Amino acid sequence: MKSFDSKYGRCPMYYTISVLEGKWKWIILWEIYKAEVIRYNKLKDTLQPIAHKTLSQQLKELESSKLIHREQYNEIPPKIEYSLTEEGRTLIPILNLMYQWGEKHMIR
């Protein structure tokens, strides 16, 4: 019997899901998209009740996947801003479709 990875390891759908897994990554991308450029503290406030550790981890993973850009300014206190990369912007049509689908199907 084949293992999951041997069967789906080269599947584009599996790759996409593995890069964007977790309940926060899509929302983080959506909020960065809406803001264009957003500071860490503003993003954290917007995403309440997200924990600092969770947000930091998700941002690091999105940055390592080259979907977001992190800009740190050497000030006191440090100023950190996030924006979408060109590759991250390619997800905007998908994010918009997900938003529209949810708007249409969400039970109010």
Automatic annotation (TrEMBL):
Keyword Ion transport assigned: no
Top-level taxonomic group: Bacteria
Keyword vocabulary terms for this entry: DNA-binding, Transcription, Transcription regulation
InterPro entries associated with the record: HTH_HxlR, WH-like_DNA-bd_sf, WH_DNA-bd_sf
Listed Pfam families: HxlR (PF01638)
GO MF, one example: DNA binding
Domain HTH hxlR-type: 11-108
Protein name listed in UniProt: Transcriptional regulator, HxlR family
Organism: Gottschalkia purinilytica
Organism classification: Bacteria, Bacillati, Bacillota, Tissierellia, Tissierellales
